[in-house]
Amino acid sequence: MSTHETPPADTPAFVARPEVRDFIRDQVAADQAAGVAIVTRFPPEPNGYLHIGHAKAICLNFGIASEFGGLCNLRMDDTNPLTEKTDFVAGIQDDIRWLGFEWNGEVKYASDNFEQLFIWAQQLITQGVAYVDDQNAETIAAMRGAIGVPGTNSPFRDRSVEENLDQFARMRAGEFVDGEKVLRAKIDMGHANGQLRDPIMYRIRHVSHHRTGDAWCIYPTYDWAHGQCDALENVSHSVCTLEFDAHRPLYDWYLDQIGITQSADRNRPHQYEFARLNLTYIVMSKRKLAQLVSDCVVDGWDDPRMSTIRGMRRRGYPAAALRAFSAHVGVAKVNGTNEIELLESFVRDELNRVAIRRMGVLNPLKVVIENYPAGQVEWLDAVNNPEDPEAGTRKIPFSRTLYVEREDFMEDPVPKFYRLFPGNEVRLRYAYFLKCNEAIKNEAGEVVEIRATYDPATHGGQSPDGRKVKTTLHWVSAEHCIQREVRLYDRLFTDAFPGADNVDPMTQINPASRVSIQAMLEPALADVAPGEQLQLERLGYFCADSNDSSVIHRTVSLKDEWARVQKRS
Length: 569
Ligand code: ATP
Ligand code: MG
Hints:
Layout: H1 23-33, E1 39-42, H2 52-67, E2 71-76, H3 86-99, E3 108-109, H4 114-126, E4 130-133, H5 137-142, H6 161-173, E5 182-185, E6 200-204, E7 218-220, H7 222-232, E8 237-241, H8 248-258, E9 270-274, H9 286-294, H10 309-315, H11 319-329, H12 340-354, E10 356-358, E11 360-361, E12 364-369, E13 378-383, E14 393-398, E15 401-405, E16 425-428, E17 433-441, E18 447-455, E19 472-473, E20 476-477, E21 482-489, E22 514-521, E23 533-536, E24 540-544, E25 551-556, H13 561-568
Parallel strand pairs: 1-2, 2-3, 8-9, 10-23, 12-18, 16-19, 21-25
Antiparallel strand pairs: 4-5, 5-6, 6-7, 11-22, 12-15, 13-14, 15-20, 16-17, 17-18, 21-22, 23-24, 24-25
Helix pairs in contact: 2-11, 7-8, 11-12
The structure holds adenosine-5'-triphosphate (ATP) and magnesium ion.
C-alpha cells in the first residue's frame, strides 16, 4: 500500500465559503474579527485506519482553516503505546491527502511534547495541584463516587510538594511497576463533574512507544496531553465530538493552572464539540473495525465493504462525494444517525458527473440474430459520458451473436414487462431494434439462447417510421467481449443499527455481503486503469480494483435508494 500519493485532481480550491454557516464557523468568524489567528487541528489516535466519521472531522477542521485563511495541523495523538502502529500513521496521512487536504507543516505528534508535558506536570505539583497516588486503578475508580455521590479523598492526597516531586521523578526513572502509582490532578473529589474528581495525569507503562522507544515508562492521559498539545501548537479552536463536552472544564482547568492566556502572539485554545457522524448499516469505531479485520470477516482495512476511508476509496467512492456529503450533513449539537442511502446518493451524483459509461452484462444470455450476416462486425459509435461532452465517444462492436442480461428476458412476461419476450421488439443501445422470436431451451428446460431478428433500417437505434419500442437494453458482442470478475456488494450488516441494544455486531454479519460473478464486458474495458470509475449502463457504478484491475467492484447501484427512503419518511 502506498504511503504517499499526490492529491487527486479534484482537490478543493481553498476559498472562503461564506454560505457555509454553523455554530462553530460563527464562533471562528467572531474570534477572527477579534484578532485571533485561526488554527485548527485533526488529532487521530494512530490505532487504526480512519473511517467515514473521521472524514467528517477532517472536512470540518481542514475546511474551517481553508475558509478562514487559517492553518490546520495534523497531530497524531500517540499517548497510548499499547495500540499504536507506524503503519496507521502512514495510512492516516495517505487518507487525508486522498480526501484532498494538506496539513500545516510537518505532521505533529503528542509524543513530541512528552518532555514539556512532564515539566508542566512538575509545575502543577509545585503549585500544590497534583500528587502521586499509590492506590491501584480499581481503588481509585471505586473512590471516585458516582453521579450525585461525591468521591473520597485519597490518603495520598496531602503529600508534600517535595515528596510528590521525588515520587514523580522516580516514576519516570522506572522504579515502579505498571499500575503501582499514578500522578493525579488535585481538584475536587466532590465536584459535580466527575472529570474534575482528581483525574489521572500519568500512568506507569513499561511499554515501548512507536516513536519514543523506551525513553518513557510513564505516559500522559488523553486529558492531560490534549489541551496542552493544542496550546503548544497554538491551536485556537479545538473541535471534537460531543462526548468530550464534560472534559471541557478540565481542559480549561489545566490551561489555567499552567497559565496559558490569549494574547496577540499566542492562542489559548478553546474546545468546541459537535455531534459525531453515525450512519445506518455500518460500525464506526476503530475497535469494531479492527475486529472485522482480525476475525477475517473482511479481507482487510481496505476491504470495499469497510466504512474506512480506504475501504470506500477502494470501493470507488470519490473523495469529492465524501466532501460533499460531509458538508451536507453539517455540524449539529445533537447526536443522530444518518441513513447510509444519503451517502450513497452523494456517491452516485458525483460518479454521474465523472464516470465513463460502458456496457457489460452481469448474467449473460446468448442472443443469435438470425438475419445478421455471420462474420460481419460493425463498430458503432457510443457516447462516453452524456454529462460530459469532453469525454468523447468510443466504438463498440456489433455482431450476429450477443449477450444480454438474463433478467431482460421472460418467456411469459408479467404485466408491464417491456423487455425481451417472444414477439416483442426492443432497442439495443447504440445499435438496432431487435425482435425476439423464440427461446431455445436445454434438456432441463432452461432458456439458453434467444433467436431474434434485427431491423437494418434502425441503425443507431433510430426508427425510420416512427415505430416505438418501450425499452432500451444493454448488450455485448459475444465474440468481442472480455470476461472479468465483478464483485457485487450488499450491506455488511443485516441490521440498520449494528451493535444496538447490546447485541454483538459480529452476530449481525450479512453472509451475502459480497458476491463474485464472471461478467461479460465490452472490449474497451480490457485496459481499464487501476481505480478507474465507470458506469455499466443500467447496472450501476463500478470501479476497477486499485491493486488488481482485472477485478471490478460495484460501487453503488443506479437506483436512487435515497429518494425512496425520503418518500418513506
Ligand atoms: P473511534 O471511537 O471511532 O475509534 P476515536 O474518536 O477514538 O474514534 P480518534 O482517532 O480519537 O478516534 O479521532 C480523531 C478525531 O476524529 C477526533 O477529534 C474525533 O472527535 C473525530 N471523530 C471520530 N469519530 C468521529 C465521528 N463518528 N464523527 C465525527 N468525528 C469523529
Ligand atoms: Mg479516541
